[in-house]
Structures are given as structure tokens and as C-alpha cells.
Amino acid sequence: MRADGSPQTNSTPAFGKADLSNCEREQIHLAGAIQPHGALLALDAETLQVRQASSNAMAFLDLPREPLGEHVAALPGDVADQIAPWLDRELSGIPVAVRCRVGLSRGHYDCLLHRAHARIIVLEFERAERSELRSGTLRDALERIAQASSLTALSENTAKIFRQLTGYDRVMIYRFDEAGHGEVFAESRVDELEPLLGNRYPASDIPQIARKLYERNRVRLLSDVHSEQVPLVPPRNPVTDAELDMSLCTLRSMSPIHVQYLRNMGVSGTLVASLMVGGRLWGLISCHHYEPRFVDYEMRAQCELLAEAVSTRIAALDSFVQARAELSVRRIEQHMRAATRQHGDWRAALFDSAEPLLWPLGAAGAAMLFEGQVHTVGEVPATEHLRDLAAWLDTRPRAAIYSTASLGAEEARFGALSPILCGLLAAPISRTPGEYLLWVRPERVRTEVWGGNPNEPVIVGDDPADLSPRRSFAKWHELVRGTADPWSEADLTAANLIAGSVADVINQFRSVRALIVRDQLEELHSQVRGAEQPILICDAEGNVLLVNHAMLQLLPSPDDPPQHLLELAAPFIDHDAARACLDALLRARQPWHAEVECQARDGDALPLLVRADPVISPRQKLLGFVVLFTDISVQKNAERARARFQERIIDRSALSRLRLTNEGDAQFRKLMSVIVDNAQLAALEITDGLNPQRMPGMLDGVQASVARSTELLEILLRHASRSARS
Known about the structure:
The protein is α+β, with helices and mostly antiparallel strands.
């Protein structure tokens, strides 16, 4: 509601016209104005005429007349010469910086150019600062980032590095959770300031449209929250007859709501750098100053380089945690197989002690419901509650993993179990109803500290100054009940791997038992037929006894299943090799474990892992054969991603594509060496430990970061060499 009680509209508000009810949709990239510490010219890309300009351009650039309609070469100075080498570039990613002289006084300016539209080139001018690029300091900072051994150490070091480098009063590492809420994860500040470490802020403080801009424009500067914005003239660009897209503009004015938010915090100037991990916005490096503060281009470029290195290191550390979990899972799998061989029962390996099953996921308890029995370890609810829970899971859409940190909120009848079971992670281990692996965590009653009351009622007015809920940023403590510690990505990966291993053992166990226990044949056949893994069972002569549905889907003619083991060679791409292995299995009892390729129905090659074994009775009698297939296309895609990364990664000896001085070339080599070392370490840890389904995306993210860092470093060093000579 508005302050006068009238309803708010749901339309998309123009820049500066939003209030708290619709600021999520404010078109902040169409600001139509800039901050006053610079000037902007928008050129027709074909004619290079100035078609749009900030209203302060004439005064700021010391021009003899208004630049609208002028060819850029007609402006006093050398700006046309300096931008000319770049005009054939795409210029839609990282803005290019050039040092130029402009105006009657031939003053020195830093000019950032990018393409806002296929037909519009934007020039942004800032007064040049006399600064020196200290490549040694930058290299030391990159090395400190690359050597961080934990996320906490990395975040704390990053906050210190940025404060030392930029001189801001406060630097925070701000991390987003799954719901989009932010937490101050690390902080470096002057002693006089109140600490904000651990404070949480609601997701609504940073609208989604702003988060999308953080992904494109990785460093944003607001030099003075009390300054007046400078409008563009005319408001609509004549080339496109539309408002100028200012997504990549360094000078773009901030939303009045965001400016008022900062004023309410007592902040006068900010610099924010994005942390992109695996293609998503993981968090922010947020720098606050309590007086106006301008940071020049070279410093901002160094901040962006460091933020890219931090993002790469976060990806590596995330993968390292998952690698440790996966190693534990592989040990569990080995123990299960050993227990099966020695004792005939794999369940002992899971439930004889608590550590193997609980430690990889940090769970307080675990349970397995299998063939009507309930096996438990650690702290879990009573058996009847576990059976009730499994029955409830059966009513939900089937998924590889179900997870929640607040089961009572999902299903009220389980709320009473919160002291023991509040967080639940569940994985089905077969297609049989009621068969699950469960991990549980108890309720963790905790106090969350928010930067102001996030639940305070809102009185909304048309004026952004009417931001009543966030006038106070005093710490507000909220007692949180009914939730457990959330499950991490590493927890989900570990659970998926453990459940997959258990399901694999179950399939083998049931397949073998199908040959041994004939009086239970029909029930077991039903269970095997319903298994998701392709299975084929033969008798001792190789005659097919059972082919499950999953196996039929792999065959060229599912309506004409094989009648004999040797006929299974038909769908393999290397038909002769497959038949030879099957023949050795049948005649010499030689197991066949290998990676193979089958001809999929769409014509593509489908990579599979085949495990074909003879089944021998305790009296050494051949009972038959069991053949299982596992689809490994995800793992193969991961391997291809790993190979692509190695092909694309920049060689240590790579030279800049730009013309640099000898000193600039040496600086480039040294800094790129650290950047590439960091990327290669991240790639190694990602490929060693990450869930194969996420690996290609994470590797592509690291590669994109290296490519962006390379381009940024080239532009920075070229600019630094020019500014040193000016």
C-alpha cells in the first residue's frame, strides 16, 4: 500500500520511480543519468557523431560548445585518435580504457569505451589520476589468494588485501545463501567502526535485476551518495529511439532507493566487486567509506583482477571439500564389497560403526529402510516414525535426492521430531517403495543477527526517502527455531554417491540371489525388473533368464530381446570385441569389466560401463551370469570438459596480444603466471573431487575467469604504460 492507502501498481517502474513495493522490477540499467565525477558521450557507431551526452559534458571536458551533433574528431584533443584502434572490436564485454587529452586545455582524461548497442559506442570520461601500477604488490596479493587453504582464510585475507589496496574504511566479504539472503562472512575495518561481521541482510536488499547487473559489470563505484545525478541529453538516444542501456557504464547513476539505503547506513562512498563461481553470483566484496571517495580506473581494474582470482579459489576450495567427501564414499564402497565377500552381507560395513556413514555428511544419525528392515546408526527417531517418514516420501515426486533443513515446515506432523529429526536428506536406493537411505540432523536453536529488523512493517511512499524499515541498521537478533544446519552441495554430492553405491550393491545382491534362491524368484525378478540400472541374467549355458526394462531401452529392438548371452553383442559399436569378451565370459568364466560404447537409438554413441560376472556357488558350481550396465555419459562429458580446459588454458609463456613495453611484457608474464597457477590448481581440485554433473560448468567458469583476467590485465598494463608517459 502507498502511504495514502491507495494500492500499488504491478507495472515495471522506470528508473527513479520505484518504491519499496516494486523496486525489484526497477529498470536500473536505464538510469538516464550519471554520477558527476565524469562525463558521457554516446556516439553513432557508423558516423561517430555525438548523439547523446551528459548535461555536464561541455563544462567537464572544457569544450568550446555543446558536443551534440559533433563528429568525435571535431572535439579538441586526441580522443578520436586514441579510440580509433578499438572501433573494430566487439566491445560488449569489458570496457576498454585509453588515456587521452580533451578540451581547450588539453586536460588528461581516462576514457572508457564500450558498445551499448550494435549502433552505439559509449565513451565515459574521468579525470586522470597520477597513479603507479605496483605489479609486485598485485602479484603478492594474487599469491596470497591462491595459497588460502580454507574459505574462512581466503575471505579474511581478501578483506585485508582490498582495504590495504583501496583505503576504504570497511571491506566486507558478503556471501549469499540459497534463499538469496546475504551474510557478512569476513570483514576488515578501522578500529572505530562497529563490527558487522556475522550480520545477515534479507534478499530484498539487493533486487534480482541488480544481481544480474553485478554479473555483467563486475566492479561498481559510487563515489558520493550525496551528489546530484547528471541527466543524459536527450533522454532517448536518437539512433535507437530508446533509452540508453547503461549496463556496462561505470558512471551510471545508482537507484535512488539504493542511495537512500546507503545514506541510512551512514555510508558516503562504496566500491563493490562481484564474486562469480560456476557461472553464478556467489557473493560480493563490498567496500564502504564514511566520506566521499573516488577510485580511479587502474585501481578498479586491479580490484576486478583480484576478485576473479578469489572466485577461482572459491571454486577450488569448494571442490576440495567435495573431494574429501567423495574419498570417504569410495572407502564405504570398498568396505561394502569386502563385507559381502567375507560375510555375505554388505550392510555390516554401513552400520557397524557411526563414522563411515555419518562423517561425510556431518549428520547426527542415519537409517536405511531395506526389505522391510530398518538399520540405524547415531541419533534417529523411533522405527515407527522412520517407517512413517518413508511412506510420506513415497507420496512425493521421485527424485535422486530430497533435502530440507526444516522437515516440520514441509510436513507439520513431523514437527514434533525436531529435537532429533529437523534436517532430512533422503535418497531412494531402489524402485521398491519404502526403501531409502536417510540422514538426519537435529534442530539447531540459534540466534541470527540481522542488520536491522527484516520483518518490520513497511509504510511505502512515492518518495524514496520514505524508506522507513531500513532507517535503523542496529543489530536485530532473531531466535530461529524449527531449522537444522542446511545441507551443503558437498553433502548432497556425498549422499548421491553413497546411495548410488548402495543401489549398485543391492542390484548385484538381488541379481545373484535371483539365481540362488529359486523359491523367491518371482518376487526378486520383479525387484530386478524395476531396477533403474540395466540388468541381464543368464543361466550357466548362457540362456537369458531375465532382461529388465532398463536393459531393453538400450537394445536396438526392445520388442525382440536377446535369447542368449552372445546376442547381447549386437548393440555394441565394436561388435566383434564385445562378442569376444562375452564368449570368454561364457566359456572361460572370465569376468568382463570395461568401458564400452553402444549405438543409441538417436544414432549417437552412448558410453557405458559394463560389469559382467560369472556367479559361482559356495561349492564352486557355475550358476549363471549377471551383466550390469552403468551409463557413464556424465563422467565422459566431464572428461571432455577437462580436456577442453587443458586445451584452452593460457600457456605460462603466453604473450600479450597488445603492444606493450618490455617492462609491461615482463609484468604481464609474472602476473599471468600467478593467475594461471591459481586456475590450474582450481581445475585440478575440481576434476579430482567435483560431482561430474557440475564439473563442466565449474571448469568453464574457471576458464572464463582466466580469459576475462587476461583481457583485463592487457588493458590495464597498456593503460598503465600510457599513463606513466603522460
